[in-house]
Amino acid sequence: MKLIAKTLYGLEKVLTEEVISLGASDVQAANRAVLFNGDKELLYKVNYCARTALSVLMPIADFRIRSKDDLYKSGLKIEWDRFMGPDDTFSVVPVINSPHFEHTGYAGLLLKDAIADFFRNKTGRRPSVDADDPVLLINLHISNDLVTISLDSSVIPLFKRGYRQEQAVAPLNEVLAAGILLLSGWKGSSTLTDPMCGSGTIPIEAGLMACNIPPGKFRSFFGFQRWKDFDEALFQRVKLDSENGIISSPVKISGSDISEQAAIQSRSNVEKAGLSDLIKIGVSDFKDLKCTDEHGIVFLNPPYGQRLQPDELDSLYSMIGSTLKHNYPGNTAWLITSNKESLKHVGLKPKEKQTLFNGALECILLKYEMYKGTKKQEKA
Q: CB neighbours (10 Å) of residue 27?
């Protein structure tokens, strides 16, 4: 069957590599999504194991429309009883970019009516809409005149791993954290530190990767578990096979934060993820830290502008550049930020940069290589 894994902008490449490694075929990267073919086992596996997927959709119909009425008429023709019964609840999530619809909600309402009328015509009963906890979550995507209707097999977004008990003011999305780690090429062998760790998302995602722990291990629910064709035995086998690959790792992973409260939150999340033996969390100001491994890797997610004043941000970014240059020789640093103005105060030339999104917030991911002495001396 055809499947679609949705992701954040900029992570399409790493998600493509993930689904291929899990057994997908006919893989094609799209905008914030990866399209591929697979069976029910792969559907379960991508939900359970993919680190950079936000959700996994299964398309059940696609067609073109010339008017609003065409959406209702075509929606009525879908055999909805293959996927749900008249006593089940459902919800429709519309994503619309079409001249046929000025209001996104109206397209969703037309499809809801088509589903309800399908069952009323066939059974005399109409299923109920439940936006909070539906049995079936339906994704309606309309681009110009092309309509794609899919079932959401995840329902609860996959970045909600289940290990985060405590969170900072502006926590880093778990999928983005995993994506940054994969984009960096970190393989779980070199020392990793996050000196502004907040609630610990980057160290925890790194720990999961290093130990080969599937990110779905902490979740108690996936949308496909309510589907009519859900195969409990198959899902248990997918879980068992995935968890049989878990290993212990000798890599050193640490996080710290200037806020003691953030460090407490981080430790709580690390413990929930079962990684207390691997990840060490401390309370420190970054400027007071020095690297313990001259071949290590540093990840930095500085506070955004919503939390600090412009002059404070400029000073912070200046301190980051100075500390990296003087205290982290030989290390590679990755910095993600939405504050382009303050970046000039880092005073270091990035080796690489690319655009990513943390939710709706546009960010830049930059790579800095720290040399001992000067760049010429390092090359020599």
A: 17
Contact 202, 177 (CB under 8 A): yes
Instruction: Provide mean pLDDT across the span 18-45.
Output: 97
Task: Provide the 8-state DSSP code for 86.
Answer: T
Nearest to 95 by CA among 54, 133, 128: 54
pTM: 0.93
pLDDT digits (tens, 9 = 90+) for 96-120: 999 999 888 999 999 999 999 999 9
Pairing label, strands 253-257, 192-194: parallel
Residue 380 has pLDDT above 50, yes or no: no
> By C-alpha distance, which of 168, 219, 251 is closest to 50?
219
What is the arrangement of strands in the sheet containing 33-37, beginning at the earlier edge strand?
25-30, 33-37, 2-6, 55-64, 146-152, 136-143, 89-97, 128-129
Alpha-carbon gap, residue 218 to 164, rounded angstroms: 10
Q: Do 225 and 235 meet the contact criterion of CB atoms below 8 Å apart? A: yes
Residue 143 identity: S
Which residue matches tokens 């990684």? Answer: 275
Which domains occur in the chain, in start order? 2-152 (3.30.2130.30), 174-215+226-379 (3.40.50.150)
pLDDT attached to residue 374 = 57
How confident is residue 206, by pLDDT bands cut at 50, 70 and 90?
very high
Q: What distance in Å separates the CA atoms of residue 34 and residue 108, rounded to the nearest whole number?
A: 24
The string of DSSP letters for 41-81 reads HHHHHHHHH-SS-SEEEEEEEEEE-SSHHHHHHHHHHS-GG
The residues with which 62 forms a beta bridge, in sequence order, are 148
pLDDT tens, position by position, 250-306: 999 999 999 999 999 999 999 999 999 999 999 999 999 999 899 999 999 998 755
